[in-house]
Amino acid sequence: MAQNKPTEGKGRGRPRAYDPQTALQQALGVFWNTGYSGASLDSIASAAGMNRPSLYAAFGDKHALYIKALDQYWATAHTAMQAALNDNSLTLEQALTGFYEGQLAIYFSGDGQPRGCFAIGTATTEAVEDPEIRNVLSQRLSQLDADLEARLQRAIESGELNGDVDAAARAMLASSLLHSISIRARAGKSREELAGQARDAVKVICG
Fold this sequence. Notes:
By secondary structure, the protein is mainly alpha-helical. Helices cover 71% and strands 0% of the residues. It has nine helices and no strands. Helix 1 packs antiparallel against helix 2 and helix 4 packs parallel to helix 7.
């Protein structure tokens, strides 16, 4: 008796489609919670809803995926920074206050404990031994300093700050405050407490 031939491709169905941005965001979350060394490709693939071959095909190895996650985080953080610093309707004090509040919103965006800044919490550890991560981190921090210095310089030119103020030195102070807030958020300080500390420090920076 003749048997029916199996239909080609039967039961396989169509390959599952993945949204790269969503998958990258999920991977970023794993790195953020566990650090680079603590994250495994299996845990990242599970969070992203992908298998390891698909993850590798989409993003490369773990190191390449981390760099992409770091860039993704910076894009989000930088957009929030620019929204506050480049709003010409705001005074310097208002702009800096909005700048810190925008970053705090990101630091406290996790479902569990506050995670602080992704770059400060994860890249600083790896930068000691990894030249590429160190270079990316250095570039991002330099951009942060430059953005703050540009805003402070505009305040000097408009008369909000005295002409003898060192914009570069004040920018370094402002960026250092941000890093301190990030660490303190990760250490368990409340968002309300950190926002209050930022407002007090802004008055000093604008003084």
